[in-house]
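[job 0417] fold request received: Isocitrate lyase
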Amino acid sequence: MTAEKMVVLNDQLKPSPSEKLASQWADNPRWNKAQRTYSPQKVTQLQLAQPFDFSTAKAAADNLWSLLNQPELIHCDGTLSPEQAQQQQRSGKLLAYLAGWQITADQNFGFPLYNDFTRFPVNSMPGMVHQLSQTIDPTTMPIIADAEVDCSGVLNAYELMRSYIEAGVAGVHFEDQLMVLKQSGHHEGRVLLPTREAVQKLVAARLAADVANSNTLIFVRCDAHSAALTTSNSDPADAQFLSGTRNQEGYYHTQSSIEHAIARGLAYAPYADVLWLETERPDLLQAAQFSKAIHKQSPGKLLAYNCANDFIWADRFNQTQIAQYHKHLQSLGYKLLFTNSDGFKLKSVSKRKIAAPAFNQMPNALAKAPQQARI
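[job 0417] inference complete; emitting structure tokens
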């Protein structure tokens, strides 16, 4: 056999890119419980002949996955600016969280500033991730970002996920709300998407990560605990929670309950890496119900919980109970604890402390500020 024929034969024996990808999905424990509704061939068809380098996002995602698989619960507080991220890193924080609540109220690329409303350009959040990535090393302090900006369809979810990966993000969280009426999960007025539509967006996000050859983590926030409306009655998965009535805007009334949140969590589990339970108030009993039900069907599934800093904690717990709350969540199997808006509130409170003193006391207030937050 000639050397030329040997080369041809060797090329024929080499696995194709799609075969290599199929082997990765089969052999990597990361994907043991993951489901994809598309083939490895579809991914390789979408990949460019000379793909972009997404190694930063890939390394960041691998580090985030490792951190979340440690036994300790991680606290992830909201970051509003690169400087805040730098201070968080210096104080020993392991993660940075870029919440849409904060970017809508400040730092977005548009002129309107409304806290917790999706009314700003789609590149605002990826742009902020890019700024953070220039200040901290996202591979050592991974960034989780909110996919809040008008994910009105699967293509929007795909493109936003790709933009985040280009910026170096480690994980992105999606919500099962209608974005045009989006609210924080512990506030009233939310309208749910049908379960099927929410799953389709998770699939689109995973496809974007696969095409980018990145293991970017997908978080999904379950808002059904406190949401009373949904856009459609067409999804059989939602039928048991529908009341059969509609409001004046045409949305369907649905049951707000931990059972509804559990049902959606179970439906999302094969398509997301982390399930986030969102409740209107801190409730360990409901957190335990959610954890037990999810882990019965999907053992070891990563769970997150939101301890919003505008919860009225004193109405439900004493100081000792508040201090022990995160330990209880850890015992229930939760791995990540979010506080989403503290960056924005810290900025406002700090400014108020400096601005509040009378004019003749201002130099003293300004003199103390650099000592409290060294840059």
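[job 0417] notes: The chain is about 45% helix and 15% strand. The CA atoms of residues 266 and 297 lie 8 Å apart.
[job 0417] exit 0
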